[in-house]
Amino acid sequence: MDFMQLPEGPITLRDVTVPGCLLGRAEDLSRTDLSIAGGRIVAEGGTPVEMGGAMVLPCFVDMHTHLDKGHIWNRAPNPDGTFRSALAAVAADREARWTAGDVRARMDFALRCAHAHGTRAIRTHLDSLPPQDAITWPVFREMRAEWADRIALQGVCLVPVDRADPEGPFARTADIVADAEGVLGMVTYPVPEFRARLEGVLAMARDRGLAVDFHVDENGDPGPGTLRTIAETVLETGFDAPVTVGHCCSLAVQDEAFALETLDLVAKAGIHVVSLPMCNLYLQDRQAGRTPRWRGVTLLHEMRARGIGVSVASDNTRDPFYAYGDLDMLEVLREATRIGQLDHAGPGWVESVLGHPARAMGIAPPALTPGAPADLVIFRARDWIELFSRPQADRVVLRDGRAIDRRLPDYSELDHLTRTA
């Protein structure tokens, strides 16, 4: 029987390959059987389907995206591929075109892509400088309700640190976030009042019962950056809600002793780190006429050695910060493995797109044990080398034990929004 055409009713997937870490086993990959009935994994029973070692993973968790920016490249291209130009292009496009209808259409397109690729949960950062906060957050809430049975959505406000003043308009933005049960966020970079501003934002989060998620040190500056100050402040204030930091690129170009001491503090503070390998590969160390010497990856191995929870995620898709991408977490994991040389760094890195981001988001980690939802992605590949050597476009995605329609939306759907004005 061809496992790409699974029968209806209870089934047993015989002889599948799964990561040992998802079964509580020490080996990297294990061969086993998985039984499915009533939309869940069960102990045994059902029509047997011979799988020939096909790899099975739980559906993915993508905890750092920008759904509100996605798919604007055609109308707002980055003229030179630099970070500075990306900021300018997005700001101009946002001011001119980010109506509720525009944001909604592009978010829906992105979510359909992610769903077809096998993602079950997404955290998205949302540009939230007024008046955009009052436009985008209601759209986000509508989309979260519409997609609740397919993709669990979390929203994070995104404002620069110099606009995150607890005494200014940011307080109203924080109330919008709290009302939407979101996450308080900002972009951090060294400013004279950084520690005081950070303490104020943490106090705002505590008062509203919110977790925090910051964009941190997304640059190649070898200076001290902001990550160490964040870890110290979390420890000193006793802030006990979840703290996530994304990017942390500059760690790789800092003095090594300083960087490792910073990571010791991050571990002690219980901070979760998200690396965005594809976007940072694209942006960092880009200079006209010069081949990049440094590719933007942060200290993934050193973080893991200290017990820091590390995720990898999609970040931007088809916008001025990253011209490519489709919210395919297999692509993210594949490229992270290559960029970060994770293939000889011990087993369990698959958790960077499964359990680690789920726990950081406060949702149930994916599992393959009886009682877990049968939300699965099935590949013809039988090991990591086969999995990462092809795009796996013929994968099967099960939600509640049933195969979904994996047809991707056509880019032409967005022509009326994304053609150059």
Features:
Urease, subunit C, domain 1, TIM Barrel, 421 residues, Metal-dep_hydrolase_composite, EC 3.5.4.1, metal ion binding, globular, 16 strands, four-stranded mixed sheet, alpha/beta, Metal_Hydrolase
How would you concisely characterize the structure shown here?
This is Cytosine deaminase. It is built from 13 helices and 16 strands.
Protein described:
The strands form four sheets. The protein has a five-stranded parallel beta sheet, sandwiched between helices. By secondary structure, the chain is an alpha/beta fold. About 35% of the residues lie in helices and about 20% in strands. The chain has helices spanning about 85-95, 100-115, 130-145, 170-180, 195-210, 225-235, 255-270, 275-285, 300-305, 330-340, 355-360, 385-390, 415-420, and strands at about 10-20, 30-35, 40, 45-50, 55-60, 60-65, 120-125, 150-160, 185-190, 210-215, 245, 270-275, 310, 375-380, 395-400, 400-405. The protein contains 13 helices and 16 strands. Helix 2 packs parallel to helix 3, helix 5 (about 195-210) crosses helix 6 and helix 6 runs parallel beside helix 7 (about 255-270). The chain has two domains: about 10-60 and about 365-405, Roll (Urease, subunit C, domain 1); about 60-360, Metal-dependent hydrolases (TIM Barrel, Alpha-Beta Barrel), CATH 3.20.20.140.
Beta-strand content bin: 15-25%
**CATH topology group of the largest domain:** TIM Barrel
Give the strand order of the largest sheet, numbering strands 1, 2, ... along the chain: 9-10-11-12-13
Q: Which bin fits the share of residues in helices?
A: 25-40%
Mean pLDDT level: 96
The strand count comes to 16
Query: What is the string of SSEs from the N terminus onward?
Result: EEEEEEHHEHEHEHEHEHEHHEHHEHEEH
Shape: globular
Specify the CATH architecture of the largest domain.
Answer: Alpha-Beta Barrel
Head-to-tail CA distance between termini: 52 Å
Question: What multimeric state do the chains show?
Answer: single chain
Q: Indicate the CATH class of the largest domain.
A: Alpha Beta
Number of domains: 2
Q: What's the alpha carbon Rg, rounded to whole Å?
A: 21 Å
EC number: 3.5.4.1
Keywords: Hydrolase, Metal-binding
Organism: Rhodosalinus sediminis
Pfam families: Amidohydro_3
